[in-house]
Design brief:
This protein is mainly α and about 170 residues long. Among the domains are: about 65-95; about 105-125 and about 140-173. About 95% of the residues lie in helices and about 0% in strands. The longest helix is centred in the middle third of the chain and has 133 residues, at about 1-135. The N and C termini lie far apart (about 135 Å). The model is unreliable at about 140-145 (pLDDT under 50).
């Protein structure tokens, strides 16, 4: 039994050595795997830090762009308000100009009417003067009552010139 016991012992020893070698191999593989996992963890940790920094940058940029958008909305609102004000002013000025134009047109019609009446009156006076001269009734008394025509004509010219200048200056502005 001693040989059998020695063989059994040797066999047990061989199994123990084989089991020990197997455990050593598994330990080595586990250590290699642990190193790989440690490296992957470090890489993932670095990526996480980078991603966190990138996220912070993007959040800052988002905040800045939100402020810019808000500012642009405010400017757009202000521009729209200013545009409405300008349109209102434009409409008021346009209405005032149309009213002034109408008033000027009415004044011009009145002036034309006055000119027409004055011309008719002048023509009638001239006809009366011509009639009185042709009848031989002209005497010095008739001339005393007649006013000179030249100052009246000059007055009419001055009024017409002034009126024309007013019309031109109003239409230019």
């Amino acid at each position: 039994m001693s040989t059998a016991a020695a063989e059994a012992e040797q066999e047990a020893r061989a199994e123990t050595i084989a089991a020990l070698e197997e455990v050593k191999e598994k330990l080595r593989q586990s250590e290699v795997r642990a190193e790989q996992l440690q490296k992957e963890t470090e890489v993932l940790q670095a990526r996480f830090v980078d991603a966190t920094a990138e996220q912070a940058k993007l959040e800052d940029r988002l905040h800045e762009e939100a402020e810019v958008i808000e500012q642009l909305k405010n400017e757009k609102r202000d521009s729209a308000r200013q545009m409405r004000e300008m349109e209102s002013i434009y409409e008021a000025e346009r209405a005032a100009m149309n009213k002034e134009k109408e008033e000027m047109s009415n004044r011009e019609e009145e002036m034309q009417s006055i000119i027409k009446r004055l011309k008719e009156s002048l023509s009638q006076k001239n006809n009366e003067d011509d009639d009185s001269r042709s009848d031989g009734r002209s005497d010095s008394r008739n001339f005393r009552h007649c006013k000179p025509i030249t100052p009246f004509t000059n007055l009419m010219r001055a009024m017409l010139t002034s009126f024309s200048k007013q019309l031109i200056s109003k239409s230019v502005t």
